[in-house]
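Practice problem: Cytochrome c oxidase accessory protein CcoG
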Amino acid sequence: MPSDAPTITRRPSGSKDHSSVPQEPQSPYASHRKIHPKAVRGRFRRLKSGLGAVLLALFALLPFLRWDRGPGVPDQAVLFDLGSQRFYIFAVQLWPQHVYYITGVMIIAAIGLFLATALGGRVWCGFTCPQTVWTDLFVWIERRVEGDRTDRIRLDKQPWTARWLAKKAVKHAAWLAISAVTGFLSIAYLTDAPTLAVDLLRFDASALAAGSVLFMAACTYLMAGFMREQMCFYVCPWPRIQAAMLDEDSLVVTYQDWRGEGRAPLRKSEGWDTRNRMGFGDCIDCGQCVQVCPTGIDIRDGIQMECIGCGLCVDACNDVMARIGRPGDLIRFDTLTAQAAKAAAITETAKAAITTETAKATAVPPPRYRLLRPRTIVYGLMLVVVGGAMAIALALKPSNDIAVLRDRAPLFVALSDGRIQNAYTIKIANMSLTDRQYRLTLSGPPQASLGLSGESGEAGELALSARANAVETYRIQVRVPRSALAGASTPLAFTLTPEPAGEPVRHDSVFLAP
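Answer key — structure tokens:
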């Protein structure tokens, strides 16, 4: 971990300092504690819901968008056709030879995630991660059917009754319906979506397609309905990596302990002047920040691995502060550098004197956020370089390819006229959307001639053809006089040139002789 990275603590929610009290050794194993997040309103809740709705809509609509690529080619805008080994992404078509594009996309995604984390903490986890989006949807359904946090906790403790069974049945039926749709949409990216939908509704889908849909549906049902935060705690590696991506100037969810401590419940008979003189802060220890947290942590214990940076605790705390007449942002997105500067600027006397939001803002000028830092500059430059290389590679992506496989049994054949013959299998990949004609030429051994297998004629070059978006296979013979060969192995090269014009492609091989 770099020296400037913040320390990640992992303490149970609501924990307090009991260092002076002897503690018994705790078991490293703990039973699962079910979390019932409470509903909350605020700007981060709206942002989270809006982004989730947009991402779900894109996931559902993309397989049904059409993109005209010409006759004989799939018209699904986004299609990862594993059967024909083609990836179609709008105007881009990728073949197995283009695996380096997939590698480039993964590198860009990783660097982008590093940059987003260095700038805004775990914004990916809190707002756009599929586990977060689907869990949010499942919790919303649970809340609509069973009620808010208190009602759900009470319902879970009740014995089985007709009402209990009805609520659970409705909730799980809705979960299963969403899981089934998710399973279908996941597989719809791998085949024609409308055709798959019709086949499934008619019970005419293949066993592989139906099994894949059921598998993805089961994964959605289990992970979003039951595992939820456990996926983040125990399965996802990113929480354990994030510490290396953060530094003191990353925006993270912070609790302003210099303002909130010491925390104590608010009594109706108490005024804020009295509380300040008693050494109490703005935190009234209501626990709302813990109750709305999807992972059930207490942000007042500091930055923790379990925090996904969703900001719902900010909304909950701001609502409480507004109701008790105190300034907002006791919990806020801020940098550790800014928090340390603010804490250093607040003396006990000044803290007791500050009672209004205006006075507090005047007394504690916020440090300026540093957007450009060594790591953000490095990540940004890496994105530009890799993204530029990908753009250039896509612009220069060839539309033809040739693969050559020399026969190994036999290695060569001695003809009656004194020449040596080698056989080769030629595969021509026509990546364009129109049929094409090609000219195959040979360079290397002098006096070499080409001939198609099964045909008697031979020449210095061959005219070949390939259908649109297909691979054509030819078997050819190369014949060279024995006197023209300098040794047992002679380099040669096949050059494939599109007709009437196009960029030639070349493949190197060898010619073997006695």
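Discussion: Residues 162-188 form the longest helix (27 residues). Students who identified this feature from the tokens alone can consider the problem solved.
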